[in-house]
Amino acid sequence: MKKIAFIAAGVFFLVCMTANAQMDSQQSMKPGMMRGGMMQGAMGAMHGGMMSSSPMQSSMIMVNLLPEMQKQLSLSENQTDELIGMRSAFKKQQVDYQAKMTKHNRKLQDLIDSSAPVDEVRKQMKACADIRIDMHSDAYETEQKMKAVLTDEQQEQLEVIMAEHDDMIQKAKPKSRSKKMQ
Which of 3, 16, 17, 145 is most buried, by the most CB atoms less than 10 A from its CB? Predict the structure, then answer.
């Protein structure tokens, strides 16, 4: 039983560390990098790319992406400033979550290293999961607030841009072998 708990705790720890690494890589993106290739890469990840394994990941990408879409969405200076402010507040909050996640992951590892009872390990695993849930729900909430800053026309334009990009991604994907064989 202890072996199963140890393996489960190890797997969960790796999942937490992966989430932590994803957040770190997103936070290292500079606003100027979102133009051109990086912006396309972020939108590709949002629509079936490598980050689509987490449905909430698109919210984190959108929070970083929207302020950079000034020209595409014809954002006013006030809208751009408001979106940048929301993104800045979001990023500061994410740094706090990262610190909490690191602290809880260390405590989880200490519990595992000391062969703590399964109940204690489970409790610590839930604490790590709760932080990740908070991170993603805050990203979703920030995305919704950011979209509320846009006019109806800008929201429609954003949907068009995302749909066009999604179509482009789908067309660029190689056809599966099963379709070729038919």
Answer: 16
Q: Within 13 Å and on the Cβ side, how many CA atoms surround 9? A: 29
The pLDDT of residue 44 is: 42
CA distances from 118 to 102, 124, 126, 129 (A): 21, 10, 12, 16
Question: What amino acid occupies position 177?
Answer: R
Selected residue with higher pLDDT from 109 and 60: 109
Whether 135 contacts 104, CB under 8 Å: no
pLDDT at 175: 66
Cβ burial, residue 73 (10 Å; 0-12/13-18/19+)? buried
Q: Which secondary structure element, helix H or strand E, spans residue 3, and what is its range?
A: helix 2-27
Residue showing tokens 């805050």: 138
Q: What are the residues whose beta carbons fall under 8 Å from the beta carbon of 61, sequence distance 6 or more?
A: 26, 42, 43, 45, 46, 51
